[in-house]
């Protein structure tokens, strides 16, 4: 089966906003009377906002009403937006622009598959709003990763079959989502962490489109 489309996560693949999420979540935890470490924050990668809040509250041993949790999630997002609103094209990760140039030359379709509801804002700030043929974000899905919805909807919008797609992810939950969606997966990060990925590289800077196509098209 020929590969026709590449689907990309946003955080950790195109840009790295993990530090902004961490700063906002840590500020929230501190206001609730406890702290969270950077190591703990790794568990929140690829996880939706409300699921992240539940993990943080469990870490702090706190139980709150749904109404209060919604207030806290909204507050965290406001702090996060203050930080990402300062982003510029300089925040695009190394190797992304050359890789996307190769993608276009290869005639491949592209989709963004991010659980973040702030993905459109980030893409606008970094000047990549027009790069993708389809954008699936947290506003278009009801289930977060590792559910495959964000990627299967991307494939549907691109009008391609799942096995014609390659998913690029930096998170374990994202790799699982891609595989559950019947897609090929490229993990960006440590092979010790992304053990389920079909192919692993440190980042897009260390990959070429030809290498990916050769891996999955034989």
Describe this structure as you would to a colleague:
By secondary structure, the chain is of the alpha/beta class. The protein has 2 domains: 5-16 and 91-217, 3-Layer(aba) Sandwich (Rossmann fold), CATH 3.40.50.1000; 18-84, Putative phosphatase, domain 2 (DNA polymerase, domain 1), CATH 1.10.150.240. Helix content is 43%, strand content 11%. The protein is built from 9 helices and 6 strands; from the N terminus they run E-H-H-H-H-H-E-H-E-H-E-H-E-E-H. The chain has helices at residues 18-31, 38-41, 49-59, 66-84, 96-105, 119-126, 149-158, 172-180, 209-217; strands at residues 5-8, 109-113, 134-136, 165-169, 184-188, 199-201. A 6-stranded parallel beta sheet has the order 3-2-1-4-5-6, with helices on both faces. Helix 6 (119-126) links the parallel strand 2 (109-113) and strand 3. The longest helix has 19 residues, at 66-84. The chain is globular and about 55 Å long. It starts with a strand and ends with a helix. The mean pLDDT is 95.
List keywords for this structure.
Rossmann fold; 43% helix; 218 residues; alpha/beta; 9 helices; globular; DNA polymerase, domain 1; six-stranded parallel β-sheet; 2 domains
Concise overview:
The protein is of the alpha/beta class. It is 43% helix and 11% strand. The chain folds into 2 domains: 5-16 and 91-217, 3-Layer(aba) Sandwich (Rossmann fold); 18-84, Putative phosphatase, domain 2 (DNA polymerase, domain 1, Orthogonal Bundle).
Structural class by SSE content: alpha/beta
Annotated CATH homologous superfamily of the largest domain: HAD superfamily/HAD-like
- Tell me the overall shape: globular
CATH topology of the largest domain: Rossmann fold
CATH architecture of the largest domain: 3-Layer(aba) Sandwich
Number of helices in the DSSP assignment: 9
């Amino acid at each position: 089966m020929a590969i026709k489309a590449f689907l990309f996560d946003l955080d950790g693949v195109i840009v790295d906003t993990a530090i902004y999420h961490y700063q906002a979540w840590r500020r929230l935890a501190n206001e609730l009377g406890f702290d969270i470490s950077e190591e703990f924050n790794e568990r929140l990668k690829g996880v939706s906002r409300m699921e992240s809040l539940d993990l943080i509250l469990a870490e702090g041993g706190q139980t709150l009403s749904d109404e209060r949790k919604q207030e806290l999630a909204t507050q965290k997002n406001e702090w996060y937006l203050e930080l990402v609103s300062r982003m510029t094209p300089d925040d695009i990760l190394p190797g992304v622009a050359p890789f996307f140039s190769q993608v276009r030359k290869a005639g491949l379709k592209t989709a963004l598959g991010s659980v973040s509801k702030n993905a459109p804002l980030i893409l606008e700030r970094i000047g990549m709003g027009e790069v993708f043929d389809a954008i699936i974000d947290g506003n278009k899905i009801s289930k977060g990763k590792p559910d495959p919805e964000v990627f299967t909807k991307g494939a549907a919008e691109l009008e391609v079959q799942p096995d014609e797609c390659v998913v690029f992810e930096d998170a374990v939950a994202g790799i699982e989502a891609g595989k559950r969606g019947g897609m090929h997966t490229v993990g960006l990060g440590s092979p010790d962490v992304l053990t389920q990925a079909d192919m692993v590289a440190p980042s897009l800077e260390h990959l070429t489109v030809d290498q990916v196509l050769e891996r999955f098209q034989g």
